[in-house]
Design goal:
Elements lengths: L14 H13 L8 H11 L4 H14 L2 H19 L1 H4 L3 H12 L9 H17 L1 H4 L1
Helix pairs in contact: 2-3, 6-7
Length: 137
């Protein structure tokens, strides 16, 4: 919206409010950051056994995203990598970030099938992109 936000306002001091708003923004998008049409491709890529092939495939998939999705992903993951740099203070490791953001950024068009298995792979995709950020972007 065109609303001006004053981040110096006291209501924004609690980091959980800001992080919750960020996650809510991505969860409420009409389509996730990784579009529905890319979901199965990312899941198939993360299941690849050969690491070099898996890495290339995921990088290529990220580059195949629409420009707005790709650019947003690049900025978001750059920020998340910075958060991970302070994992000793904030307890947000790569795995923790992946658990929080995996199902939000990457989800199937319908919730049919094994949601628990989907979640494992969703988290692995986010983990891979975080771990390979400089290679991918």
């Amino acid at each position: 919206a065109d609303e001006h936000l004053d981040l110096d306002d006291g209501r924004w001091e609690d980091i959980h409010v800001i992080t919750g708003a960020l996650k809510l923004f991505f969860r409420e998008l009409p389509e996730p950051l990784v579009p529905f049409g890319h979901f199965d491709k990312f899941i198939a890529a993360i299941k690849m056994q050969e690491p070099v092939r898996r890495g290339r495939c995921i990088r290529d998939l990220v580059y195949s995203l629409p420009p707005a999705n790709h650019d947003t992903m690049m900025l978001l993951f750059r920020h998340l990598c910075r958060v991970i740099e302070y994992k000793e203070e904030n307890r947000m490791s790569v795995q923790s970030i992946a658990i929080v953001f995996g199902p939000t950024l990457l989800r199937p068009a319908s919730e049919e099938g094994n949601m628990a298995m989907h979640m494992v792979f969703q988290n692995q995709v986010v983990e891979h992109i975080l771990n390979q950020y400089s290679y991918i972007f």
